[in-house]
């Protein structure tokens, strides 16, 4: 009988579909070309926005959701998992610029092992659309912007950007071609001649910018590696596998306070 399509897949499933080693799937994740997640059940969390002034970060709590299902992991978390075999996770990735999503303060961190990592069906399909289908012969994006970045292609759709927005994108593209792709947001605004105080305000009417630009949560930004040439995407990794810690809390269990 016909079975429902799965909503997520193990790394080994995706590697088999693409006819590549599982380590290549991990590399794509660390290059931020592919998003890996972990499945959680009834996990209490805190969500909000992190604002930075000249002295420190201020976390503004906006919601306390209970998370169920796949939750995207941050790059630093994935690096720890690939090196050590597991990691304690206290927060998850969010696409909202300046936003945060973390495990509630009264809840223990989530223990995530290598075998717990999954790829959602939506993320698998997005990767295949962008990079040429479910084979090992991945293609790169060809022409994706005009000369001055006032027109940029994102997910096969062209988007227009104003002069100051385009200036920021040009600066980020130039930085991406160096060994230090991250740039301070205030400096970007200053060099682009913008009068706004935050990058999010400059691009607030252009939601496509969130696919183009990544934030580190500390006021710095970079062009998404997805839009770079293959030689700029690759990074070298040194991995070591480690056994799971005995007696530590696994993912997917109820962590609500008693």
Structure write-up:
By secondary structure, the chain is α+β, with helices and mostly antiparallel strands. The chain has 2 domains: 8-131, no CATH class; 151-233, Arc Repressor Mutant, subunit A (Orthogonal Bundle). Helix content is 28%, strand content 26%. The strands form 5 sheets. Strands 2, 3, 4, 6 and 7 form a 5-stranded antiparallel beta sheet that branches. A 3-stranded antiparallel beta sheet has the order 12-14-13. Helix 1 packs across helix 2 and helix 5 crosses helix 6. The longest helix is centred in the middle third of the chain and has 14 residues, at 163-176.
Descriptors:
five-stranded antiparallel sheet, 9 helices, Arc Repressor Mutant, subunit A, disordered C terminus
Question: What topology does this entry show?
Answer:
Elements: E1 8-10, H1 11-18, H2 22-30, E2 37-52, E3 57-63, E4 66-72, H3 75-84, E5 86-89, E6 91-92, E7 99-103, E8 110-113, E9 118-120, H4 121-131, E10 151-154, E11 157-160, H5 163-176, E12 183-184, H6 185-192, H7 199-202, H8 209-212, E13 213-215, E14 220-223, H9 230-233
Antiparallel strand pairs: 1-9, 2-3, 2-4, 2-7, 5-8, 6-7, 10-11, 12-14, 13-14
Helix pairs in contact: 1-2, 5-6
Short description:
With 258 residues, this protein is an alpha+beta fold. Helices cover 28% and strands 26% of the residues.
């Amino acid at each position: 009988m016909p079975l429902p399509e799965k909503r997520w897949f193990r790394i080994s499933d995706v590697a088999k579909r693409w006819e590549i080693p599982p380590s290549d799937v991990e590399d794509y994740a660390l290059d931020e070309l592919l998003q890996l997640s972990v499945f959680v059940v009834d996990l209490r969390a805190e969500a909000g926005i992190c604002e930075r002034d000249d002295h420190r970060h201020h976390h503004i709590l906006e919601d306390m959701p209970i998370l169920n299902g796949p939750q995207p992991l941050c790059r630093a978390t994935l690096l720890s998992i690939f090196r050590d075999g597991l990691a304690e996770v206290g927060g998850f990735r969010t696409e909202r610029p300046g936003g945060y999503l973390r495990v509630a303060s009264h809840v223990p961190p989530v223990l995530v092992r290598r075998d717990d990592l999954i790829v959602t069906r939506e993320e698998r399909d997005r990767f295949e659309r962008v990079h040429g289908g479910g084979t090992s012969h991945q293609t790169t994006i060809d022409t994706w912007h005009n000369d001055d970045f006032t027109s940029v292609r994102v997910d096969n759709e062209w988007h227009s950007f104003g002069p100051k927005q385009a200036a920021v994108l040009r600066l980020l593209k130039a930085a991406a071609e160096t060994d230090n792709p991250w740039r301070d947001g205030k400096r970007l605004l200053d060099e682009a001649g913008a009068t706004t105080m935050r990058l999010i305000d400059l691009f607030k009417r252009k939601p496509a910018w969130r696919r183009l630009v990544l934030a580190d949560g500390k006021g710095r930004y970079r062009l998404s590696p997805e839009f770079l040439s293959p030689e700029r995407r690759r990074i070298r990794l040194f991995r070591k596998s480690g056994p799971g810690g005995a007696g530590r809390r696994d993912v997917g269990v109820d962590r609500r306070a008693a």
